[in-house]
Specification:
alpha/beta; seven-stranded parallel beta sheet; binds uridine-5'-diphosphate; two-stranded parallel sheet
């Protein structure tokens, strides 16, 4: 029997690289495509010795060609942190719109199942809490986050159009805040900001008064949810995230505690349109996929800590015996 073959766009990114690993472990042949703007070959370097892993440096907003059979296309290519989409607004819009169109066209040509990485940003600064899939959101189209939010909302719409018009098998995951090993240092997200700050003994930069909330999901839990969704019959968007909600100030204190740091906390201005609350309602994922997150924040943070320490030490930014 031939192996199932799957394409992961954005496969060298944080989430993409964990997905490549998981699907290889499940016996798939994996084609990882990335233009390396925000992805990093270091994330997938260890996979190159696996004969079922292939890497192609490619911009998915251009025509994409893949030879041979394809059973699934997972479209994960996109800048995904607020700093990235401030710096790469046009690329963010292009990969969410043109890139999704190309990836859908490829899936259609190959008769492959298509899974779109969408986002809790579709809910914007939500007026409904927690957010369930039937909430349409409160998005500012012309604010700094609009380039990401609207691109992903367009991506959901065109995915549904391919499903309804072409009969393509599609799945849409709305991903909430996720953390774990291999998050990019300095990508501006909260954990890659806080953990190096704590390890260096610098103050943790809490934006606003830190009362805004987020709900953090460990990457292995997220990957389990995506794996289950791809193999399910659920055709409408599905939230995958951890409903355990906390304020950013509480999160900063947790990071200080886990790292054993003496860092203080300093307060900086809240970025424009920063959502005040965010928590996934995962009733549907529990019911339809039998999925829920398992990893406790403290355990997940310890695993992320090891990855941050290793990279900061390799960059000479921390002494090898930092003692944390
Ligand atoms: N945040 C913070 N300090 C930082 C980076 C982020 O207080 O150095 C806050 C940010 O304002 C937001 C939350 O942490 O309220 C999560 O930010 P992130 O960029 O990780 O993702 P978001 O959920 O906003 O897309």
């Amino acid at each position: 029997m031939t192996k199932s073959r799957l394409l992961i766009t954005g496969g060298a990114g944080f989430l993409g690289s964990h997905l490549c690993e998981r699907f290889l472990a499940e016996g798939y042949e994996v084609i990882c495509m990335d233009n390396l703007i925000t992805g990093d070959l270091a994330n997938v370097e260890h996979l190159f010795r696996n004969r079922d892993f292939h890497f192609e440096e490619r911009d998915v907003t251009e025509y994409i060609h893949v030879t041979g059979q394809l059973d699934a296309v997972l479209h994960f290519a996109s800048p995904a942190s607020p700093i990235d989409y401030l710096e790469l607004p046009i690329q963010t819009l292009k990969v969410g719109s043109l890139g999704t169109h190309k990836a859908l066209g490829l899936a259609h040509a190959k008769g492959a199942r298509f899974l779109l990485a969408s986002t809790s940003e579709c809910y914007g600064d939500p007026l409904v809490h927690p957010q369930s899939e039937d909430y349409w959101g409160n998005v500012n189209p012309v604010g700094p986050r609009g380039v990401y939010d609207e691109a992903k909302r367009f991506a959901e719409a065109i995915t549904m159009a391919y499903q309804r018009y072409h009969g393509l098998e599609t799945r849409i995951v709305r991903i909430f805040n996720t953390y774990g090993p291999r998050m990019r240092l300095n990508d501006g997200r909260v954990l890659p900001a806080f953990m190096p700050q704590a390890l260096r003994g610098e103050p943790l930069t809490v934006f606003g008064n830190g009362s805004q909330t987020r709900s953090f999901c460990y990457v292995d839990d997220l990957v389990d949810g995506i794996y289950a969704l791809l193999h399910s019959d659920e055709k409408l968007p599905t939230n995958i995230g951890n409903p355990s909600e906390m304020t950013i100030l509480e999160f900063a204190r947790e990071v200080i505690d886990i790292t054993g740091s003496n860092s203080d906390i300093c307060f900086q201005p809240l970025p424009e349109d920063d959502p005040k609350v965010r928590q996934p309602d995962i009733t549907k994922a529990r019911r339809v996929l039998g999925w829920e997150p398992r990893v406790l924040l403290r355990d997940g943070l310890k695993m992320a800590l090891a990855s941050f320490k290793e990279r900061l030490q390799a960059a000479g930014e921390l002494p090898p015996d930092a003692g944390f």
